[in-house]
């Protein structure tokens, strides 16, 4: 028996063009073939309530309308907005980035099992990892994030640490990174010990790099000797960079240089390692890291805590000045330039990328975002396996 069927319409939103389409199924009688086609919707005013419901569902993830929304998505979104305000007020961009890097940096691609392989698991908040020499001063960053962890219990520590770092880059003027969340965090010290027993801390004090500075040379012969020492130091630094970032973490030469560009923000302190002669407070600060210094791109002041030394003058602005102004850093005693930095600029494998980023900030931003995303996912176990986006 033939009878008319009600036409069924479903609306879809395109995330790239924000265009609305209607997927229409139409059939005049049972037994006839159905026709499926896409066409622009010109009846959106009739479907306001349906679209509103779908929009809310999409904000919680695909197909959330067919089940309870994932509470992590809403909490991650809200947490990010609060982090933006907090980071800008406290000027804590660099230390939050450092915390995330050091949490990820325990990863060893030669190990398979979670959490023994290390990586972005939140394990840095436990001893002995937090109290390692390389993580000096990092407890402050954990203190910053603890209130967020308490307020947003559905956000794991693994996610929170990486969310804060990506948000800090964005707040400093850097690229928006296509982050993935849903990390399973190490939940106890015994789990952390299982991790640290097999994967070593790659960012230990000095990272086995050669000495950053040499005593001033006097006379032609001493100058020649110093130049030879510097060359040896650069070669050793390049080998060590590849040992850590290539053999252990799995990065290419290009990705290593991209990640190094994050030194455009941040400082080193005498109290956190022996490579820097500048310490805490205005009296021990370089001329670019005093409380009155103009370290933002717009030349405004406000550095959080005074002290230490930076690689760039505008060290709270994320740009490509680490590459463009490297000669300034090499010649200015109030700026940092270590053997590792010299290796990136001089080594045959690193140099072409270094020079490219000096010429093209857009390319640097693109490559940094990709390398940062990769670093943020090292060793992570995601639930669901594909992760979640916000």
TrEMBL record:
This protein's record includes keyword Oxidoreductase: yes
Keyword ATP-binding: no
PANTHER family: CATALASE-PEROXIDASE (PTHR31356:SF66), THYLAKOID LUMENAL 29 KDA PROTEIN, CHLOROPLASTIC-RELATED (PTHR31356)
Pfam families given in the database record: peroxidase
Protein name: Plant heme peroxidase family profile domain-containing protein
Any GO BP: cellular response to oxidative stress
GO molecular function: heme binding; peroxidase activity
Keywords: Oxidoreductase
Domain Plant heme peroxidase family profile: 155-390
UniProt xrefs under InterPro entries: Ccp1-like (IPR044831), Haem_peroxidase (IPR002016), Haem_peroxidase_sf (IPR010255), Peroxidase_I (IPR002207)
């Amino acid at each position: 028996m033939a009878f008319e069927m009600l036409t069924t319409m479903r609306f879809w939103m395109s995330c790239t063009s924000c265009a609305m389409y209607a997927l229409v199924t139409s059939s005049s009688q049972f037994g006839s073939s159905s026709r499926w086609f896409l066409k622009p919707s010109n009846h959106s005013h009739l479907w306001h309530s349906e679209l509103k419901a779908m929009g809310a569902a999409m904000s919680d993830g695909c197909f959330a309308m067919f089940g309870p929304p994932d509470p992590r998505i809403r909490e991650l979104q809200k947490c990010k907005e609060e982090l933006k305000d907090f980071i800008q007020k406290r000027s804590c961009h660099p230390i939050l980035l450092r915390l995330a890097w050091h949490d990820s940096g325990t990863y060893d691609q030669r190990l398979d099992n979670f959490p023994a392989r290390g990586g972005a698991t939140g394990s840095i908040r436990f001893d002995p990892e937090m109290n390692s020499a390389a993580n000096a001063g990092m407890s402050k960053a954990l203190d910053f994030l603890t209130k967020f962890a308490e307020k947003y219990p559905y956000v794991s520590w693994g996610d929170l640490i990486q969310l804060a770092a990506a948000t800090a880059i964005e707040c400093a003027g850097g690229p928006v990174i296509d982050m993935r969340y849903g990390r399973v965090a190490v939940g106890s010290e015994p789990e952390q010990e299982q991790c640290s027993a097999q994967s070593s801390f790659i960012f230990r004090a000095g990272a086995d790099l050669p000495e950053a500075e040499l005593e001033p040379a006097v006379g032609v012969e001493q100058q020649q000797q110093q130049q030879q020492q510097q060359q040896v130091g650069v070669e050793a630094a390049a080998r060590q960079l590849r040992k850590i970032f290539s053999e252990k973490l799995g990065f290419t030469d290009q990705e290593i240089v991209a990640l190094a560009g994050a030194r455009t923000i941040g400082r080193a302190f005498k109290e956190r390692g022996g490579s820097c002669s500048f310490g805490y407070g205005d009296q021990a600060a370089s001329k670019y890291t005093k409380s009155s210094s103009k370290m933002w791109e717009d030349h405004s002041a406000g550095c959080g805590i005074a002290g230490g030394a930076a690689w760039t003058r505008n060290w709270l602005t994320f740009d490509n000045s680490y590459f463009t102004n490297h000669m300034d850093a090499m010649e200015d005693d109030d700026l940092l330039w270590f053997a590792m930095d010299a290796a990136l600029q001089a080594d045959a494998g690193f140099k072409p990328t270094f020079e490219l980023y000096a010429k093209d900030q857009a390319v640097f931003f693109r490559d940094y975002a990709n390398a940062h995303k990769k670093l943020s996912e090292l060793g992570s176990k995601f639930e669901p396996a594909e992760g979640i986006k916000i």
